[in-house]
Amino acid sequence: MLKKTVSIEALKSFVRRESSQFLKQENVTSVGIGYKIKDGKPTKELSIQFTVGRKVAPEGLEAICTTELPKSFVIEGVEIPTDVIQRSFGANAREIKIEAKLEAASLRKVAANPIVPGVSIGHPSISAGTAGCVVYDAQTGAPYILSNWHVLNGPTGAIGDSIVQPGKHDDNRVDRNIVGRLVRSHLGVAGDCAITSVEHRRLKPNIIDLNIVVERIGEPELGDRVVKSGRTTDVTYGIVTRIHVTTRIDYNEAGVKEIGCFEIGPDPDHPAENGEISMRGDSGCVWLFVNRGEPTDMMLGLHFAGEVGDEHEHALACYAGSVFEKLGIQPARPAAEFVSITEAKLGYSPTFVGVPIPLPTPANQEVRDDLLDVGGRSVIDYMHFSLAMSRSRRFARWAAWNIDGGSLQRLSSNKIPFKKDPNIAGDAQVGIELYANNSLDRGHIARRADLLWGTLAEARRANSDSFFYSNITPQHKAFNQSKANGIWGELENSIFADVNVEDLHVSVMGGPIFSVNDPVYREIQLPKQFWKIIFFREAGDEAVKAKGFILTQADLLNQLEVLELPEFSVFEVPISRIGEMTGLSLPSGAVVEGQGRRREMEAVGEGEIRRILSVCEIIG
Q1: Around Cβ 412, how many Cβ atoms within 10 Å?
Q2: Same domain, 141 and 210
Q3: What is the DSSP string of 358-372?
Q4: Do residues 293 and 305 both lie within one domain?
Q5: Residues 379 and 483 placed together within one structural domain of the fold
Q6: Closest Cα partner for 388 from 586, 165, 204, 202?
């Protein structure tokens, strides 16, 4: 007669349902599923396995204010034995007290460029932890570094805080080591996890000393062999000894938290130095599945704690699946939106119209100093457009984009939210705080409809990218929305309608014009003027033609409280004049301009725009 068995899922459900009541006992440190230990060795019998701070005889339990744990549980009609092991755990990044020989300088503990997983990283208020792996936003595809909450956030941290590499313990010059911003974090049953952007250095996904890029995530099983690469103990191997564990960890100021995880013990075939498979400072590294002795690209867990006390051999890791779901990340760019898209395709193309039309550059030191540095560059690339942010105004100084009229796609903007670019610090860009509960329009600088071309995947990515607040400025609805016959939104349409453009390729630049006299609303200076330059070649003509425009809104100062914005005017002006007003060096040497007289374009609708644009007077 076959012996009745119980499924792992049933055991998992039992642990999730019942663990909290046992963890209320001070002496119980975790509850999970593991093979019952006899004579110091694991058997093949599954058990509900408890770890305790002190293992004492029944008569001594009262002295430590605890009660005797059950000998077994009946789950789905099957009696499952329990097992009790003396083992306590602590988070691995609060204090670092390790042997002097492990403190020797290494590539893991100095400033790295590019940053690679396995190096020291942390919040400026925290000593040091480990950069686990490169992950990607499930919606935008933005790259991040994954680590722990107690490495990147901690009890005093907040979303948007600076993150330093290396961690403060390894180099206390935190002001010079800022590498990005805390984007998201979580501390709870789903895991101890957080992600940071990388804004000031390059990023390489190959894990140090393993040279493996995380491409997949999986769920561990008892007996799985795993490997990790951490800041303190470098590369160590282990074996999964318990699964579906709930442990209680004291996070000091943040309090005691229950964390869902699995346990890893030493791999006798790959013994670690001093038997330590992890130590303080390794928090945040990732555990990879080992198949036939070789590390794979499958991540099983995120290391966050190790055994404390006289024994230090065991480690705890959050489930990769739970962490990725909670943080909204993936091990690779989202396939549906980013298939066939490479980094090389991102951004404005200077040669798009056949003759080099370079990006704007600062014409003076004041503008140069005001540009926001993101990842070591002032230029931020998106699908089919690029821009540069102003530090002081928190809007883009300029945006530049390409339009392929022959491959434009029709995509809906429904359900695409306006959002802050996660690669830029939240306080470096103006968001919903300006537009809430008023009639200000969130106007795209690089027009959404202009960007929706190329493959369907590229058009979808451009559609999403266009809604980042970095591409948004407050604009009068009458000129922002072309459906309301707004002149500003129809300029590019008019080019396509009345000029035989070579290959239907057009390049456009534009942005706000900042002035010290711009009115202030909600502590934000609103730009009153905007500029745009359209570059194109007519069929059969080698010369690139350019037409520059300025849109001027009347004085908003008296209208700010009710936001009943007045009428506006659009002027065609020389590119040199736009350069003077913006402090930018703009492309001019390779192009021929329209007449360049300061000619006002009345707000009479699309037909009048077409009439004006059809007059393309060339200057020698």
Answers
A1: 7
A2: yes
A3: PPPEESSHHHHHHBP
A4: yes
A5: yes
A6: 586
Is the pLDDT reported for residue 385 higher than 70? Answer: yes
Tell me whether strands 286-291 and 191-196 are parallel, antiparallel or unpaired: unpaired
Residue range 398-455, pLDDT digits in tens:
999 999 887 888 788 877 889 999 889 888 999 988 888 776 788 899 999 889 988 7
d(CA 377, CA 389): 11
Kindly report the backbone phi and psi dihedral angles of residue 103, in degrees, each rounded to the nearest multiple of 5, phi listed first. -85, -5
Domain count, the chain: 3
List CB contacts of 188: < 8 A, sequence separation 6 or more. 257, 258, 259
Joined tokens for residue 476: 């009068």
Question: Which residues span the domain enclosing 263?
Answer: 89-337
pTM of the model: 0.53
Going from the C-alpha of 330 to that of each of 173, 320, 342, the distances in angstroms are 32, 10, 17
Listed residue (423, 217, 396) closest to 322, CA to CA: 217
- φ and ψ at residue 285, rounded to 5 degrees: -75, 165
Is residue 412 assigned to a domain?
A: no
19 vs 16: CA distance, rounded Å? 6
Is 396 part of any domain? yes
> 478-488: per-residue pLDDT in tens?
544 444 345 56
**Strand 41-52 to 78-86 pairing:** parallel
* Tokens at 47, concatenated: 């058990």
Closest CA to 94 of 279, 313, 312, 263: 279
Q: Is residue 345 part of a domain?
A: no
Give percent above pLDDT 70 in the chain.
79
In the block, tokens 């995509």 appear at 411
Same domain, 82 and 96: no
Residue 286 has pLDDT above 90, yes or no: yes
Rounded to the nearest angstrom, the gap between the alpha carbon of residue 565 and the centroid of all alpha carbons in its chain is: 36
What is the DSSP annotation of 384-433? Answer: TEEEEEBTTT-SEEEEEEEEETTSB-----TT---B--TTS-GGGS--HH
| Helix H or strand E segment including 591 | strand 591-593
38 and 187 co-located in one domain: no
4 burial (CB, 10 Å; 0-12 / 13-18 / 19+) is exposed
User: What residues contact residue 497 under an 8 Å CB cut-off, 6+ apart?
Assistant: 610
The backbone torsions φ and ψ at residue 322, rounded to the nearest 5 degrees and listed phi first, read -65, -40
Query: Same domain, yes or no, for 82 and 93?
Result: no
Residues 401 and 253 in one domain: no
pLDDT digits 0-9 by tens, 522-552: 889 989 889 999 998 877 777 888 888 888 7
Cβ within 8 Å of residue 94, ≥6 positions away: 126, 127, 150, 252, 280
